[in-house]
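Input record (one chain):
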Amino acid sequence: MIGDIQNQKIFVYLDNKYSSFFLFALAQNKTPLVELRGADNNVRGFVYFFNLKRENQMIIYQGKSQLDNQTDIVCIATDGTSNQKTGSMIQTWILNANLDPISANRWGNDRGICGDCIHKGTEKSLFTFRGTAAGRSCYVLLLGPQSIFRTYIAGGYKTARSDKLGKLGRGRIIRIGSYGDPAAVPADIWRDLLKDCAGWTGYSHQLLAADKNNLNTQFLEYSDFCMLSADTIEQARLAWSQGLRTYRTVESIAEIDKNHEILCPASEQAGKRTTCEKCMLCSGSRGKAQFAKSIAIPVHGAGKKHFSTNNN
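The corresponding structure, as predicted from the sequence alone:
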């Protein structure tokens, strides 16, 4: 550690980038502030900044998942991220309260978190103790949720009072469901968190019924603040016909329906000309958002190599 300013720590690590400290930084989705280079211009070390203050990092829900009514879940709001695409939004993580995210995904115990999302992958044997589910195509790298879970288990987060959720989100941009499907958490929790915020983004696979041929009336209210996550053009067209906006992952820009969709302006293909924090087009299907086009984005993220629209 080379600095300490009101509990906000600056760390430096030299020489061995694969040390336990470096892995700790990765687990917190940290990118170095500075690369330290020697006279030969080779990287010799890294400087990291960690904000250890947790005033805006709180548990906003603990209880049964709305997806299966049996899994104990926890939803934790954290402040700040190194994710350049999203920008500095309040992140919300929906986790199995009793099992770490990687194990839950590996063994198929994440239905209460992600529902029947096709991007979870195929569960492995209970005798397998390493890695995630096979063929997982989700864009979320699980090191981040894993770190949040460990802090939660260690008692690192206070529980927000239900009447204080509005204060937690006041004036901020909220990312609803940084990991996990927002529909796992009661809609009233989100409404309270969002009521005084400056904006939000959100996505849910639960707005379609299990047969994918109809809307899911049980979770339709989530479309007020979430985009319908569509895995195929047919699903997207169904949503559009019912007045809902979609967020669809495609394999190439050529697949985008220009009459109904635009390319995500924060994507690499669009030149990263903005961030989710500044854009906020992915804010559901109500209010001003209902007049905007839907969003499409070429496949990206941790599970990119396993993604194929042919498997949707």
